[in-house]
Structures are given as structure tokens and as C-alpha cells.
Specification:
mainly alpha
């Protein structure tokens, strides 16, 4: 019963983190396996539901994980877009130009960083046998984040075009970073 109280306290905590939810969801099967191997005790099938709440407790925890992760991905994407586009308009601050390709094109590391974040979530989705719905929900959250990034980048580029290029296609007098 102490274990159940500990888990209930963790679940009801407002400061629980998605990684803690995943740790809990991954711990239950390993606990059952360990009990079987070390003590020869067969933990009944309902154990995860008893531990994680009413029947469907694991599903509730997975849904909570996806919800919290979606908020984190949204925040990470927003910050990534801000870090990517803010220097285009900041002529007062330090003007460190982005890397350039051999062809002289400006390079961005934001897409690479975004895909690394999303890749780690896809790894989580496919590890641990959490079921097809969980995988689909996580992939959906990742694809929505990708769409959010593309949309935000498009908006930033459109803002830069309106700021630095007139309707007639000529450069405006707006101050711009030297590398633009």
C-alpha cells in the first residue's frame, strides 16, 4: 500500500514532468518482470491499473504525457523560431552572421535542432510497448510541431520581405543586419 500511496502522490503532483510519467509507465513492466524473476511471484495482470488508478490508468497517464509534451514542444518551437528570426531585425545587438554554404547561401541550424527534438520524441514513442494509440498521438504532436515551425518560419520570412523589400521589389531604407 505504501507503493500505491507514493504513486498516487506523484500522479496528483502539479509539478510532475513528462519524463517522470514515462519513467513510471516504464517502471511498472520492469517491476512485474523483476518480481517474477527474483521472487517467483506472478504479479497479476491488473497490477498496472491498480497502481496507476482505475482501469485505464496507464492510458490516462499516457494521455497526460502527450498533453504535457505537446505544450513543451510548442514552447520549444516558439523559442527556436524566436532565436532564428529575431536576429534578422535586431540591428542594435551583436550581428553575428549565420554560417554560409560553399555557394554563399546563409545556413540555419534551427531545422536540425528541431528534428533532433522531434527524433527524441519519436524514439520515446516506439520504445516501451505503449501501444499504437500512444505512438500515433506522439507522432501527431511531433507533426503539429513541425507544421508550427514551418508556419512560423514562413511568417518570419514574410515579415523580413515586407520590412526589407518594397512592393516594387526594391530594397527599403529599413536598417538591417549587415549580412542581409
Amino acid at each position: 500500500t505504501r507503493l500505491f500511496q507514493l504513486v498516487e502522490g506523484m500522479k496528483s503532483s502539479s509539478s510532475i514532468d513528462p519524463s517522470e510519467i514515462m519513467d513510471l509507465l516504464q517502471w511498472v513492466p520492469s517491476y512485474k518482470k523483476e518480481m517474477r524473476a527474483r521472487l517467483g511471484v506472478e504479479v497479476e495482470q491488473r497490477f498496472p491499473q491498480q497502481l496507476l488508478g482505475s482501469s485505464g490508468g496507464e492510458a490516462v497517464m499516457r494521455a497526460q504525457y502527450v498533453e504535457m509534451l505537446t505544450k513543451k514542444l510548442d514552447k520549444w518551437c516558439t523559442n527556436l523560431l524566436l532565436m532564428e528570426t529575431a536576429p534578422w531585425f535586431d540591428v542594435e545587438g551583436e550581428q553575428k552572421p549565420p554560417d554560409e554554404s560553399r555557394q554563399g547561401l546563409l545556413l540555419s541550424h534551427a531545422p536540425k535542432n528541431l528534428f533532433q527534438m522531434l527524433h527524441s520524441q519519436v524514439d520515446v514513442a516506439f520504445q516501451g510497448g505503449h501501444g499504437v494509440k500512444f505512438v500515433i498521438d506522439l507522432l501527431d504532436a511531433c507533426s503539429n510541431t513541425l507544421l508550427q515551425f514551418v508556419s512560423g518560419l514562413r511568417e518570419g520570412l514574410e515579415r523580413a520581405r515586407r520590412t526589407f523589400i518594397s512592393d516594387g521589389g526594391q530594397p527599403t531604407n529599413a536598417p538591417r543586419p549587415e549580412y542581409l
